[in-house]
Write the structure tokens for this entry.
Amino acid sequence: MNIHEYQARELFEKFGVAAPRGKVARTPDEAEAIARELGTDKIVIKAQIHAGGRGKGSFTNGFKGGVHLCATPAGIREIAGKMLGQTLVTHQTGPAGRVVNQVFVAEAKGIKKELYVAILLDRATSRPVVIASTEGGMDIEAVAEHTPEKIFRESVNPLLGLQAYQTRKLAAALGLTGKQAAAGAKLIGSLYKLFMASDCSLVEVNPLVVTPEGDVMALDAKFNFDDNALYRQPEVVAMRDTAEEDPREVEASKFGLNYIGLDGNIACLVNGAGLAMATMDIIQFYGGMPANFLDVGGGATKEQVAAAFKIILADPKVEGILVNIFGGIMRCDIIAEGILAAVKETHLQIPLVVRLEGSNVEIGKQIIRDSGLAVISADSLAEGAEKVVAATKSKAA
Amino acid sequence: MAILVTPETRVLVQGITGSFGARHTQLSLDYGTQIVAGVTPGKGGQVFEGGVPIFDTVEQAARETGATASAIFVPPPFAADAILEGIDAGLELVVCITEGIPVNDMVKVKAAMQGCKTRLIGPNCPGLVTPGTGKDSYGGCRIGIAPGYIHRKGNVGVVSRSGTLTYEAVWQLTTRGYGQSTCVGIGGDPVNGTSHLDVIKMFNDDPETEAIIMIGEIGGTAEEEAAAWIKANCKKPVAGFIAGATAPPGRRMGHAGAIVSGGKGTAAAKIAAFQEAGIAVASTPSVMADTLIAHIKALKG
């Protein structure tokens, strides 16, 4: 789950991670009021979307740039008016862009040094790791590739937590001395507390800056949260912005289904994430283009299966469907009933190939046979993939 | 021989009275598994269908029945605690089926487990099966949720992060007359108790295992690590399949661990590592068994 920059700032404030003062605005009036409250002539206004590249992006109304510096509250008001309710297109949003419903108005801090710090799970050790680098404001993967000696890591013992001496080591590695070293160490310590308390999977501060005044602050932040922990993070869940998510994925999550929309024309409905990925792979192997990833999971009810069907059919690009079920927990008769219900409800016109195997497979196959529906049957996964690609081509032709 | 479990292994089920746990306990009993106890706090003294005694704690259950392995069917908020309880009771094997345990919980469990004798498999896994010699492999040990009938007793070891994709491979082997020594699902989470490499080392040492199928997916570097060891140490034929070549980067593909992050953990890198190690790579999930069979024949011939 992602959050907006202004929400990240709220988390920073809650956990004592130093950052420039700022607030979110939803109208030009609010933006102006915040600018006035800040009482400085160095103000920055930033469009709030869940994607990067905002500075270089353009609005569809012609206004250029999703990040602007400004000296007056009146100026901020004018810029807010050009951003709010408008669509911002960046190299990360795709050509459709995203509607901007909020802007973040904050004091613009000068930058004397740009550093980098992040906290994430190190899969190799199964421990959290704090990564710091003197090369802030850049693509960290490029730094890792070209100058790996400028990246420092402190692995955290999960039973002890991040120790104070570790934060001091990192501050020293970042080239901080004196009061700045103490401020940097404190910031890193607070960031770790936030990471653990909010069940984050990633917190990235890029850049972490030293200002001309000598302050150490987080100027930007990217967060990701462990989806498995959301049940115990109601405050994080409250920050979810479904307007920033694919509406099909939002709909799927309401039914407890795992759905990811892709660009192709052959949809699939599968039980099990590994098999679902493999089904997408084999569709492509036989010359088709997968339209989605969809795992109905092990305990899907007839209603969930029908809902899954409707979600994939809501994609106008879909021209054929492959249902691939190997029943372990999932029972083939339940799947068959769900398919029939969905086919009837949606008045299905496009080719449907069904491949069943596993628990209650013969009952499932019989249910489909008895229905009299135009369902193409397959026994193996290869047969299923070949048939759906062929059927989709001939139907489209 | 097989690895980890034999038909004689005595198994207890944590979460036996929940609908999920109950259903699969019954299926395991139907398969001939020695389910000797269940644990559901507060229901100690009750009896599960067919006469399986239920206890309040794992310690009581293990002591009274001699169970040495556990299957955990406990919901995510309580599953880490259930794992720790199994370890504390001194079990040899704990298999956690539960999907959805917070990563931080597993990070702490893994750290706490260091130095303990218990082997943890999972979480978020289908479990493991050592097939029996009866009809549809009846009489084996089934811990978890795999359909029993797809298995057949034999000499191929199967290790996988997936559930249903594993059943594909197993069924392909069985229908071609190649049985399995043990099938192990290590699960789809980023932090788990047992890796591909851990299982492959066991298969390498197991006299009954003559060939191995390894199924992986995007995310992390476990497959690469296993491939490097196989190249240096494994004399038995190995075939593999990696799922997720068509997955978009940065997205979690169902499994919490199935994500390409910062360019790392791609299917292409894993496939390259397999090829470098002399592991035969199946081009599609439909030819996993055929790929192994051809590889075995090529190595013999």
